[in-house]
Amino acid sequence: MAGLLLAAAGLGLAGLDPAGALLLGAALAAGASRGGAVLFAGVSVLGCVVLGTVLPLVLGVRADELDVLSLLPDGPLAAAVEVVLAVVLAVWAVLRLRDRRPRPGKPRRTRPGTAALLGASTAWALAAVLDPTFLAVVVLAARADAWPGVVAAHLLWSVVAQLPLVVLLVAVLRGAHEPVVRWLERAWARARPAVRHLVTAALLLVAVLLLADAGAYLLTGEFLVG
Description:
Sap-like sulfolipid-1-addressing protein, single chain, transmembrane, transmembrane helix, membrane
């Protein structure tokens, strides 16, 4: 078990992500309560543990035998899906470019309720399936002989990978989070214009790549990727 836990900790460091802390910081800045912060962080961290533990059982296969790529569409259907996604992303990017309305310095914020925090944290936990380090832990933990080792590996990965979120939660419980939230607000205010442009550019780039991949299939019968 020691080797599994060491690997889980290393993968957690490789997948270290501050996004959860940023989401919680935004919720706190909007007026989320201490209980709401505990709910968000708890579901985010423990949700990854539950997901990693039960995912192989739900799929009915061992995690180390799962071929994720086999679940994806292929052939003409995959090309059609790529074209649809490309059009959606391109339209979204164009709408973002046309939306040049001035942003107020301090927009009115609505205090997030329990349902909103629960939904956001659940979605954040489910997004772990897009993290290669999480999938690696799922595969490694599936080889463990005992369930305690499986749960411990996923818990360790989740805590390490979301360490900024855990640290912010500790600050909230100690009543020392306000300076952190104010810093996050200032940092986001400075970075927001650049982030907006980067997101728009990324949407256009992905749309072009999807169209190129689908076009390659229509012309040659083979995808550029895969």
